[in-house]
UniProtKB/TrEMBL annotation:
<dbReference type="InterPro" id="IPR022896">
    <property type="entry name" value="TrioseP_Isoase_bac/euk"/>
</dbReference>
<dbReference type="GO" id="GO:0004807">
    <property type="term" value="F:triose-phosphate isomerase activity"/>
</dbReference>
<feature type="binding site">
    <location>
        <position position="172"/>
    </location>
    <ligand>
        <name>substrate</name>
    </ligand>
</feature>
<feature type="binding site">
    <location>
        <position position="212"/>
    </location>
    <ligand>
        <name>substrate</name>
    </ligand>
</feature>
<dbReference type="InterPro" id="IPR020861">
    <property type="entry name" value="Triosephosphate_isomerase_AS"/>
</dbReference>
<comment type="pathway">
    <text>Carbohydrate biosynthesis; gluconeogenesis.</text>
</comment>
<keyword id="KW-0312">Gluconeogenesis</keyword>
<dbReference type="InterPro" id="IPR035990">
    <property type="entry name" value="TIM_sf"/>
</dbReference>
<comment type="pathway">
    <text>Carbohydrate degradation; glycolysis; D-glyceraldehyde 3-phosphate from glycerone phosphate: step 1/1.</text>
</comment>
<comment type="similarity">
    <text>Belongs to the triosephosphate isomerase family.</text>
</comment>
<keyword id="KW-0413">Isomerase</keyword>
<dbReference type="InterPro" id="IPR013785">
    <property type="entry name" value="Aldolase_TIM"/>
</dbReference>
<keyword id="KW-0324">Glycolysis</keyword>
<feature type="binding site">
    <location>
        <begin position="233"/>
        <end position="234"/>
    </location>
    <ligand>
        <name>substrate</name>
    </ligand>
</feature>
<feature type="active site" description="Electrophile">
    <location>
        <position position="94"/>
    </location>
</feature>
<keyword id="KW-0963">Cytoplasm</keyword>
<feature type="active site" description="Proton acceptor">
    <location>
        <position position="166"/>
    </location>
</feature>
């Protein structure tokens, strides 16, 4: 049985004071039994957020990390630094990182390895562009990105990874994939994982859907056989909406 995981990806939104107000508003409401709740905040907010949600059942994630633990990498943040703050999760390979910051499958893999080296759980994003979907390349793109991200991981590590399937054309556009389409791709990703490891390992790996998920459609996505949660951008920014997403995942 895979525990559903709702992760809010705040992207480049919210200051520290806004983060503290959010944490106060969702305290006691955004952690429900049987659902794992994660907030992935900007780096600057992580110390305040980890402190504010301590003991509430809400976990904290970062949105990126560098693949080295330290060094002359101006402006970067490492897994060692995140771990010391009490961060549990880290989003890796989000399409915005791939698109705007040139992250390749090789870099994504190095970051996944760095996350494990530092006791962080990676949320690995994969997904196709609109033109790739139109050219019927969705599955191939997801296969290549999945295989790239998992390269060199042991079965035990693989079992802990959370995969987020996010069709790029559905991110922030209001155009969500149908639940049936999303489930077809997530089920396919699971067959790729079974090919890399074995069926038992693939069966415990959680695969989220992401792309215009909101309180009104979250239950439908999570009702699908192979969708185990959601990675949510826009609808995770308001406390009421975030609580409703978590409630909808029960
Ligand atoms: O990481 C989250 C995704 O990019 C989805 O964003 P969205 O919910 O605003 O479409």
């Amino acid at each position: 049985m895979r525990t559903p995981i709702i992760a809010g990806n705040w992207k480049m939104f919210k200051t520290v004071s806004e983060t503290l107000a959010f944490a106060e508003a969702v305290k006691g409401k955004a952690a429900v039994e049987g659902v794992e709740t994660v907030i992935c905040a900007p780096f600057t907010n992580l110390p305040a957020l980890t402190e504010a949600v301590r003991g509430t059942g809400i976990k904290v994630g970062a949105q990126n990390l560098h693949f080295e633990d330290n060094g002359a990498f101006t402006g970067e943040i490492s897994g060692v630094m995140l771990k010391e703050l009490g961060v549990d999760y880290v989003i890796i390979g989000h399409s915005e990182r791939r698109q705007y910051f040139g992250e390749t499958d090789e870099i994504v893999n190095k970051k996944v390895v760095a996350a494990f080296r530092n006791g962080l759980t990676p949320i690995v994003c994969v997904g196709e562009k609109l033109e790739e979907r139109e050219a019927d390349q969705t599955k191939e793109v997801c296969k290549v990105q999945t295989e790239g991200a998992f390269k060199g991981l042991s079965k035990e590590e693989a079992a802990q990874v959370v995969v987020a399937y996010e069709p790029i054309w559905a991110i922030g556009t209001g155009k969500s994939s149908t639940s049936a389409d999303a489930n077809e791709v997530t089920a396919y990703i699971r067959t790729v994982l079974a090919g890399l490891y074995d069926q038992a390992t693939a069966d415990v790996i959680r695969i989220q859907y992401g792309g215009s998920v909101k309180p009104e459609n979250v239950t439908e996505y999570l009702g699908q056989s192979d969708i185990d949660g959601a990675l949510v951008g826009g609808a995770s920014l308001q406390p009421d909406s975030f609580v409703a997403l978590v409630e909808g995942a029960k």
